[in-house]
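Appendix B. One record, verbatim.
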Amino acid sequence: MKTTSRRRFLTRTAGLAAATFSGPNLLLRGQDAASKRLNLAVIGANGKGQSDTQAVTLAHNIVALVDVDSTRLEEAAKRREKIHADSDAPAPNVPKLYQDFRRMFDEMANEIDGVIVSTPDHTHYLAAMWAIKHGKHVCVQKPLCNRIAEVRDLHQAGTEAKIITQMGNQGRTMEGQRLVKEWIEQGAIGTLQEIRLWTNRPVWPQGPLKKKLVDCPEHLSWDLWLSCEPSEPYFEFDLGGEPVPKGKRGPTIHPFNWRGWWQFGSGALGDMGCHIMDATFSILGQLIPEKIDVESSEVTDLTGPTWSRLVYHMPAGRHPALKVTWHDGVIDGQPNKPERHPDIPEDTFKKASSGMMFIGTDGVVFEGGAYCNSPIIYPLERYADVRSDMQAGKITKTETRSAMPNNPQGEWAHHIVNGGLPSSNFDYSCPLTEFVLLGNLALRAQQTVQWDKEAMKVTNAEAPNQFISRPSYREGWKPA
């Protein structure tokens, strides 16, 4: 069978995208609307991609799985088969397996309705743009990209293609985040004064690391793993002669520890910020900070710090101007957490490895997790009053609820078929990702940054601006 070249195929499909993908019940391959089964591909099929596949595989058709690691690719296919075997669902189709997503698009683009991207961060933009240029609906894991310029580019491309988009931050689909916004907007804790956020990440090696050249495993296509990044020999990392701490998954970049490397990941902030900062971003009306202050352990050109403290200075909007603080990592063996609000019980705060505090004049909303799924108000007497006000209709539900709570991939597929917008579509998640990544500009430059969002530029110093865009893309990876 003749294979159309990538360049010619992209040119042909780019012009068709806007006209072809503009509403519900599209691309159902001749099925009637009642069946509502989409043909989906998953790029980055193992790891997080495995749970992303599980979220949709019983309701839709997974027609392709892609992973640069042949062993993990086979594992992903077998795990998907087991999900179906353990369910009452009909036997699934057998998806085609690929190591290179570009080849997948070359060979079977016409068979695919939507694409889920769960690769390391540096390949999110590439895989998503290939999908968009082929007119495919796209769901991308958090953070959407690890460069702000790529986030902006992806947003524009998705808008122009008129596709259904989503980022995989499950908290955005949950009830708790919506409740907190309704409570605060309707005066449950008085006037909002401050927000404190924290995480125990990184739970992988960061700080000063050195590359150590070793033989590449036969099952890993390292060249494909690098994707757009400059070609270099396969490496592991060295902790300066110290053994890798228990639980750190060994001295390898693939498949997990890439998160701490600026080339490939986004550090602790990028890894968890799109979860933990999500409710804050929504509550503050999707505002972008004016200035960010930074303090951290050593940051290198290669890797992020072992701990950091950031202060996001937020302008007035729905609430008065206030500070959002971010803490991560460990200092001298102790979790780097913000100061506990006195209304929160000490034992409760101690158990929260990640969390958030929304501090008001009359109380504080506390969430001891990353997704804002189980918020509570302190003092508890105030919480009891708020629950009574909700029952009496004095505090009402004003936020639209998700069609599929705790399932961003399923929610995305639902809206492809039925119309409407997912909770974390690119209009929301691209500015959220920018909000998060601004902290990395300050971290990498090790200085306060003042941000001009219209110009997409740091205005008080030039050094941080070098981190806004990716320096270069290897030929053949960035779609035209």
